[in-house]
Design goal:
Chain lengths: 310, 398
């Protein structure tokens, strides 16, 4: 049965969604608006990683069939995405005198500006990192799982970053301040937390993770200027499923949505056998994610984590 | 009231907008006379403007009146366009019998049904959730149009859509019966300074057909505008405005805000579908690319730039969007491919911008959204006196 393989693929795709949804959720809770530019921030990170990879390329030994230079490039991509996000925050969002809906609309404009600049520099056609594709790991093929070393690298890196973020949020001063600001900004300010600085850190962490996620998405698929916008709704679905503002909810939501997205072939096979269910093929994988999102919004707007803020 | 007095009575913003619209129209007329634009392209531009005006009026009825964030404009536009195209296109897989009116009814009924189906669950959501959910549902509609080949012909699109009045008793054969008007070419100018050639084209049957289409758009835009203005000023419209500024206040006054929001959403969606119907006849071809999210945001720009809640603002916004859409296309033809001066970085940036006008358009759209929200979040023509009954205005003036 190919179910195991689909599950494994789902785990890989989830890792990317989780990286993206953490940032979206952090910004939602601390800057208090739905950031539609988050997907394009991922694309910024991916293309910055591409540029960096062109310079530092195959530096160093290979880890999991990827040169160390690739991981350095991803770090550069994350840093560039963080820098771009902070600059956008200072130049665009902070001086605005509008409510959170106004910020939401503005973020769409920001998303278009990011994408237009990427298109002007790199063209609209998809590009690739140019790392040779790997064959599926031989030891796992008998189990029916066709998964490459690169995909293991994606899952492992995402796991490291998520654990790192958990430690940061729970055990460091910055993490405690971030959680306090997300919970109640006025109270945090009265308690002496410089919330403006915390907002900066939110953008740095959120956009940084999104940039790294974008780089992995580029490795997993291809890089294209629309890659971020195309995945944005799936990321929103994950954040809403997990409960807006909850980082741990976003992680769980990302995992679920990613797996469901990749399981679509199996789900549609089952659905065909049932009466009264339309034949939904794998082409509708994103559609199913949106419908889950709308259903969650209706039934339980606080998400599966129950509105527990980070 | 003389023209001068009317101009004097306007606010500064109104004066600026009037001058912009007059100047832009004058520019089009000059371009038409000097051969920069062909007559049928000019009519296409005018029809496109009418279509965007319909779309922005529809969005304005949702966002401007009631404050509903609808990011599925492209979906309703697409429903209208596909509704019209499925009935009349030559390669329509469904082959529904009927003509223009059947298509129009199908588009209006279809969009009203879908709008109700989308609105019933989502309108209870918080405003920002509605934004995300509606964008998601727009993608669902686009995916269905793209993937259900047996209904919509998928990415191949629908072509061969006839003229609006083809087969009608009087209006159908009319363009063929009208005489072809031939304009001789003249050369005008000041001797010794400059000479340009003007006119020198023939207006034949295709022109009369386009003109008839254009007249149909104008009639619909005028009717929709007058209707929306009337309902906006009515007690019903006042409730919508109250909901927009404070929904809890409206429900405290005993209004069923959910029902009002639903009505406003369906009204706006039907107007958008009308815009889609006209688009199908204007370009005689529809494909799933017309349902791309970018088209939603063109309309959003028109509404927030024009002034949320203002019907006149929405019309002005429609003008501006066509100016951006077609102006960039025009600019790519006339701008030189290389910068005349040789400044290292500037040359590359200029080259990239000139060679890829699709991306430049996206950049302009993005910057415009950011700038409007930064500099004038209420828009160029925010609703002011247009919300008052004219008679009430006269009483205060005395």
């Amino acid at each position: 049965m190919a179910l195991l393989e689909l599950l494994a693929n789902g785990l890989v795709f989830s890792s990317i969604i989780v990286l993206a949804s953490i940032g979206l959720s952090l910004v939602y809770s601390i800057a208090d608006f739905a950031n539609f530019a988050h997907g394009d921030t991922m694309a910024v990170g991916a293309y910055a990683a591409l540029l960096a990879f062109g310079v530092i390329g195959g530096v160093g030994p290979t880890v999991l069939a990827l040169p160390v230079g690739f991981f350095l490039s991803l770090a550069v991509g994350g840093a560039v995405a963080a820098l771009v996000a902070v600059i956008t925050h200072v130049l665009v969002y902070e001086p605005l005198e509008v409510d959170s809906i106004g910020l939401l609309i503005t973020s769409i404009g920001v998303a278009f500006v990011y994408r237009a600049i990427i298109q002007l520099r790199f063209g609209s056609n998809p590009v690739e990192f140019g790392i040779p594709l790997q064959r599926p790991i031989d030891a796992l093929v008998p189990l029916g799982i066709r998964i490459t070393v690169h995909e293991i690298a994606i899952v492992a890196s995402a796991a490291i970053l998520v654990v790192g973020l958990h430690l940061l949020l729970q055990y460091t001063d910055l993490g405690r301040k971030m959680r306090a600001t997300a919970d109640n900004p006025s109270l945090a300010r009265v308690a002496g937390i410089r919330t403006r600085r915390i907002e900066w850190w939110t953008w740095i962490i959120g956009a940084g993770l999104a940039g790294v996620g974008g780089g992995f998405l580029g490795l997993y698929n291809q890089l294209s200027p629309r890659m971020g916008f195309d995945i944005l709704l799936v990321v929103f679905a994950a954040v809403i499923l997990g409960g807006i503002g909850s980082v741990y909810g976003a992680m769980a939501g990302g995992l679920l949505i990613g797996v469901i997205n990749q399981l679509m072939p199996a789900i549609s096979n089952v659905a065909v056998a049932l009466p009264l269910v339309p034949n939904v093929g794998p082409a509708y994988a994103d559609t199913v994610a949106f419908l889950i999102m709308v259903a969650v919004l209706l039934v339980r707007p606080s998400g599966i984590a129950g509105g527990e803020t980070t | 009231m003389s023209l001068r007095e009317r101009y004097g009575g306007m606010t500064r913003a109104e004066q600026g907008v009037s001058l912009f619209v007059c100047g832009f129209t004058a520019l089009l007329v000059v371009a038409l006379l000097t051969g920069g634009l062909t007559p049928s392209y000019t009519l296409y531009l005018a029809g496109l403007t009418g279509m965007y005006v319909l779309l922005s009026l529809g969005l304005n009825a949702q966002w401007g009146y009631t404050g509903l964030i609808n990011f599925s404009v492209a979906a309703f536009f697409g429903l209208g366009a596909y509704g019209a195209a499925l009935v009349t296109a030559s390669n329509s897989p469904l082959a529904i019998p009927g003509g223009v009116l059947v298509g129009l009814v199908l588009a209006v009924v279809g969009s009203a049904v879908v709008a109700t189906a989308i609105a019933i669950p989502t309108l209870r959501l918080r405003a920002d959730y509605l934004a995300i959910a509606s964008l998601g549902l727009a993608e669902v509609v686009r995916q269905i149009v793209l993937n259900q080949r047996d209904w919509t012909n998928g990415s191949g699109g629908l072509r061969g859509i006839p003229d609006v009045f083809a087969g009608w008793p009087v209006l159908g054969p009319l363009p063929g019966e009208l005489p072809g008007l031939q304009f001789a070419e003249y050369a005008v100018g000041i001797p010794g300074l400059f000479r340009i050639r003007v006119l020198g084209f023939t207006l034949g049957e295709p022109f009369w057909t386009d003109l008839l289409n254009f007249v149909a758009v104008v009639v619909f835009v005028a009717a929709v505008y007058l209707l929306l203005r009337r309902v906006h000023r009515s007690p019903w419209g006042r409730v919508l405005r109250t909901i927009r500024s404070d929904e809890e206040l409206a429900s405290a006054l005993g209004k069923d805000t959910y029902a009002f929001k639903l009505q406003s959403f369906v009204l706006g969606s039907v107007v958008m579908a009308l815009g889609g119907v006209f688009y199908a006849y204007l370009v005689a071809y529809v494909d799933p690319g017309d349902l791309e999210p970018i088209n939603t945001f063109y309309v959003w720009i028109a509404v927030i730039l024009g002034g949320s809640g203002s019907n006149r603002g929405a019309m002005f916004g429609g003008f501006v969007v066509v100016a951006i859409r077609e102006g960039t296309r025009f600019a790519s033809d006339i701008l030189p491919a290389r910068l005349p001066v040789d400044v290292p970085v500037l040359v590359d940036v200029y080259g990239a911008i000139v060679s890829d006008f699709g991306s430049t358009r996206l950049l302009i759209v993005g910057l415009l959204i950011v700038l409007v929200m930064r500099l004038r979040p209420e828009g160029v023509l925010p609703p002011q006196r247009e919300l008052l009954w004219p008679s009430a205005l006269e009483e205060t003036d005395e």
